[in-house]
Amino acid sequence: MTQPLPTSVKSDGTLTLRYVLTLADPSAPKLTEINAVTSQDLHGYITGDGWQPSGEQATVSDERIASTQTFEKPGRKSKSLTVVYVHNPADADNNEAYLTLAEGVTGYVLARYGVPRTQAWAVDDITDVWPIEAGEAMKQWNGANSVHTVSQRLFVPNLMISDAVVVA
User: What DSSP element (H or E) covers 136?
Assistant: First the structure.
């Protein structure tokens, strides 16, 4: 039997990124925490290639005296997050990412995939929760016919949670 191709979701306009100052339970972020006055949308600032999550997993070697093969097991994981966003030093109202992510700031970046960014957060939304401590913001010179940007490492000091479900 031939299987139909699965339906895909276009990526344009369907990644929502929000900085949240505090979460009582990062595995179940509350809608009130996501919508708190201290929260800040970041997706309008992040450049097209500026959302750069990454991760690695070490290999555990499993050698046996009775075998000529070295077996492997998955080892420790590490997560990294770098963002690149537009920078407008002359206008604080249009520079909120830079002002929100000041060096040393802690909190969480929530990443909601596959939902139009214009759609309000809702109970049962699925989100990745990145605990962060902001590193130094590095202003970039991008040359002619470009805009000013900042590249910044957001250190991951605790467990990153994939597919957390938003609760009331």
Answer: strand 126-140
Q: What angle do CA 33, 37, 41 make, to 5 degrees?
A: 80
Q: How far apart are CA 17 and CA 53, in angstroms?
A: 12
Q: Is the dihedral of CA 100, 129, 18, 6 positive or negative?
A: positive
CA-to-CA dists, residue 51 to 2, 45, 48, 153, 159, angstroms: 37, 10, 8, 11, 19
For the record, the structure tokens of 145 come out as 């016919």
**DSSP annotation of 68:** S
Per-residue tens of pLDDT for the chain, all 168 residues:
678 899 998 999 999 999 999 999 999 999 999 999 999 999 999 999 999 999 999 999 999 999 999 999 999 999 999 999 999 999 999 999 999 999 999 999 999 999 999 999 999 999 999 999 999 999 999 999 999 999 999 999 999 999 999 999
pTM, entire model = 0.91
Annotate 22-64 with DSSP letters as a single string: --S-TTS-BHHHHTSTT-EE-TTTEEEEEEEEEEEEEEEEEE-
Q: What share of the chain is helix, strand, coil (3-state, %, to 5)?
A: 5, 50, 45
**Which strand (E) or helix (H) includes residue 97?**
helix 96-100
